[in-house]
## 1
Amino acid sequence: MSYNSDNSVIQKLPKAPTGIDGLDQITHGGFPKGRPTLICGEAGSGKTLMAIEFLVHGAQKFNEPGVFVAFEEKSEELAQNVASLGFDLKQLEVDKLIKIDHVHVERSEIEETGEYNLDGLFIRLGYAIDSIGAKRVVLDTIESLFFGLNNLAVLRAELRRLFHWLKEKGVTAVITGEKGEASLTRQGLEEYVSDCVILLDHRISNKVSTRILRIVKYRGTVHGTNEYPFLIDEEGISVLPVTSLKLNNEVSEKRISSGIPTLDKMLGGEGFYESSSILVSGTAGTGKTSIAGNFVNQSCKDGMRCVYFAFEESPQQIIRNMRSIGINLQGYVDSGLLHFSAARPTLYGLELHLLSMTKFIEKVKPEVVVLDPITNLITVGSTSEVKSLLTRLIDYLQSKGITVMFTALALKDNKSEQSDEGVSSLVDAWLLVRDIEANGERNRGLYIMKSRGMKHSNQVREFVISDQGLKLVDVFLGPEGVLTGSAREEQQLLEKTGMALRDHAVSRKDREIERKRLVLESKIATLKEEFESIQEELNRTYIEEELKKSIIQENRHELTQKRDTQ
Amino acid sequence: MSQGSLSDTYAGHNHEGDESFVLRLYVAGASPNSIRAISNIREICEKHLEGNYKLQIIDVHQDKALASREQLLALPMLIKSSPYPEKKMIGDMSDTAKVLHSLGIIDPV
């Protein structure tokens, strides 16, 4: 929308900021300074409130005192009406920041007896402006004059003169007007106020009312032209400017854990990308909320601020249910890391949901946001509306660097496994939890349908929810295909038995060998002994032979000697 | 706008028995409307209420806070505070019949 017009050399139209959330954004700075602005709309559309906020914010934040000319309500009534928003008009009057002048108009009391003009009003207004140095003026609702005075020609001329005079005075004026049947206002005030016209409306669809604001015209400046939903709550008016669909958000390389180590492993080992969007879809009771709870738990554990938008269960319910799988969220709620915001989808229209969500996010400034489940939003809007809402929400969250996880209910007969909201194409990562029905039981299988920008597992993992938390188990591939649940456990048991038996067999063989070795060794010893005794025997015979030999020799020698001597 | 010359009080003689008229005419400076209104109402008073009225002419420019206090809007404005009931008229008082009727002097035509 903006073309760097801020740097332009040409003097731009000066603006008077309204201080209303979002309105200054779509008007690029506020109402035209020193010129009149018309706010028109039906009864109860928030005209007076917007005018009052313009005045009070001006006095409190922008150092621009203001005059409120009330044609309908008395100043006491007015003060009471806005006290609930925390505006202390009485005090502001005492501080000379605001002056309220109630103009009482009643036809029956006054007889017209010739030419007249509205000098009385001019004098009052002039006096009020001068007495506090007002820069802003609100006329609410000047059309009341038409009910009090008969001479239309005079009135119209006087109104023209009034707006001209206000411009000359240099005050930024806001005029409210009741919506007419064919024109913007009943008395055609838009003819006189040609600088800026804002239309307030409310639209009811499916018995849910949505307030809408539109800038009908704004001379001399660019402005948002859409219908912007707005919200009136205890903080006054906030307008939702989230419609930009720019695709130039910063990307992060940082990863953020899903809280389930095995799931992180499936996602390239580290989990989701920071400030990405994750969709968890699945049929009823597949543990979508548990995945979300786990994610929130992990994020809080890592010291990140989280916001959990619950559209189905109350925060207490979620905390209790999560406790049953070993997750204690209450601790994080107490420490202020985790914030719940629970609202039935039918509480207000879709746009207001977006508005209240962004408001809450602005307040809490989280790093992780969970929406559980988005499916329920479809009760208050059509598929395309929900998709547009989520697109804008994702856009908004990514611009803030917030990671978001949606859960969505998929219907069983939905063949394509698309979530009903058709958002799967928008998100960065999509986890699908599906029932796997076999052998008379229902088990959960988790797939990663997509995960942009990272290597991810293509396998089905069995998803087990136990007292200790969530776990992903490798699925067993048996002869009959993928095994889950008790079939898997059976297979696991079988394998375990086999292992034990094998172990046993191995040890028995070992012992046998040991025994054989012992037998062999003892045999070797016996043979050795035998050998030694034979050797000894042999030796003895040998020595005897030697002895015999030597004795014989000796004897022979002796005999020879004897013979010689004889 | 010239100021200060218009505020004045005119009092006629009291007729015995009759309740006297108390009139206040608010004008904004010496505008044509103001001047016409002043001369018209003087003429009416002299002609129909001779000696039995008290007319006060007030220039709102002299006391601007008065405008809010008296709930002034359209000017000139004539307020008849006595006799009861109070009546308010706006305009330059050129519609004599209407003025007289509002003052309760004659019946509607």
## 2
Amino acid sequence: MESIIAGLLDSLSPISLLFVFGGVALGVAIGAIPGINGPMAIALFIPLTYYMSPLAAIGFLVGLNKGAFFGGAISAILLRTPGTPEAAATSWDGYPLTQQGKGEKALRMALYASFAGDLFATIVLVVIAAPLATVALYMGPPEMFALITLALTVVAGIGSKSIARGLIAAAFGLTAGMIGTEPVTALPRLTFDIYQLESGLSLIPVAIGLLAFSEILIQLERHVGSGGSQGSATHFSSRPEDRLVAWKELFDNLKTLFRSSLIGVGVGAMPGLGAPVASFLSYDQAQKRSKTPDKFGKGNLEGIAASESANSAVVGASLIPLFVLGIPGNLAVAMLMGAFMIHGMMPGPLLFEENSQLMYGVFGSLVIASFFLLLIGRFGLKLFCKAVQIPAVILYPIVIFTCIMGSYLGQSSIFDVIVMLVFGVIGYFMRKFDYSFVAFLIGFILVPEWERALQQVVITSQFDPFMFFTRPVAVILMLLVLYVVIKTFVGNIRNKGYKETRA
Amino acid sequence: MTRLHRDTLVCLGIALGSVVLLAWVIPAYTPPYPGYGASPALVPNVAVSIMLVMSILALVRNSLIIWWGKADSSGESDYPEEGDSASFTQVGPAKLMHLILFMVPCALLIPALDWIGFIPASILFLLVMQYLVGRRTVVGPVLLAVAMSALMYVVMRYGFSVPIPGT
């Protein structure tokens, strides 16, 4: 109880509040810029958190992520160019409202829905994470090994369009993550006798290269190819009914907000699915259950409420597997896991035992970030709308320069800049050929834990493979791995057959 | 070249790369077995074997589709279907030239920091980048380049107290 109160008080300290506020404000502004999303922003700003206290760093990054999720809706509604994939469904109803001069109303609905979904998911996280983590403490190395295998398979299978490409990407991530010092012998492995590689590839340059730099390379290609066209500026009606969301309109959407938040929590808690799935699924459910389904896609506030509350609920819910099991389910959470590791903590059930005060401080920051999002969105909406109009010719060189300096900043190492450039090119080709960099990054991050669990299993069982059969939870998890692989393969074949029949 | 052919070439590259890793890199750059626990080569071998098996399976599948003359749109269905997906997945000589064009200044920035110092190298880099992106005015790009370089210098030197590259 003492640590709960101390943690919550820590989250209310002025410095912590300042960083959470800054994170949310920066996140909204960055998320509003088309082409820049939450994980990219986290990757770019992680180097700065080296110099912050753990709570301020995590609070800042969590705020950044929450803000970016809502920011993505701004460009989706105003320009129909979603800043993030999960905001695509928001644009279906948001942009028609903008065309009618009701862009501000659409943005306000998006804000309230984001706040509702986000707060709901945060409360669920706070209530269930600690008790679940206590149960997870009973998991031994075989269960952890099986669980990480399952997480990697799910991310590779469900997160990619082809399980073959997903598994290749995950295996590539595992291989890259094994570069460095081998844990048992403490000797260098796969380093090509390059001494800078003996401490392994640092997450920051790898993440900046894969997430931000490669994305900018692709966008530059499109931008130069299209002659650098920009979205048009938008006009807001000044009539109050076109600007504000009435209480009645909000109450009419309460059911949708609750259902969509539930969908967001369910989807977010499962690794690999991510916010776009939650957003499309809840939009589909809202349309199916609506009395006026024909109004969807033509400027219906319910569509915005469904999409935004679901994708914002994913933010908090996706922290459940991270805090309970130490498994990141999506890119943003993988980046947050990296931030925890940078500050010397390994996310997972032990985190509540070893750093309970910090964890409750993080919970406090999560709740505060939700309210800051409402506050910042409510009073700074028009200011953030300006971010969508930053010309690409100014933005791209700045982002490239920030990528280079950000990767240097982590360890003051020019070698890290080279790593970032190499992974930028690798990420470029992974995007081109549709190899999942989510699977790569999650494999890269989880491999030390996976290998440690495997070594513990091998050493304690003395090479007895039947040891697994004495652990029912591990057996169930490994059967689930088989199920996911078979199901995804069969699903791919069925989809192909269906498309061929249709053709 | 269709996407199917390109995918086949990529899989072939991954398969060959995996063979090189399994046959040369892992044995040459992995510590010897210490006599307890799993061999340090076990997990790398498993990961690379997954890459090899999956790329061979994809190669076989693609070869069968090409062999049976089904190299039409059905073989491309699991690629991203974005609005401009055709140009998105394209990797022709023009796209590669574009990639090289942007990568060369980034690669040159690293030695340039040592040769001419942080601020001049950064200003030059930002000017080149703005030119490549298509900004053809003079005053705006110069102001942006100077402001960004100075800001980064101040943040790194006085904000985070890190050693500035090239100083």
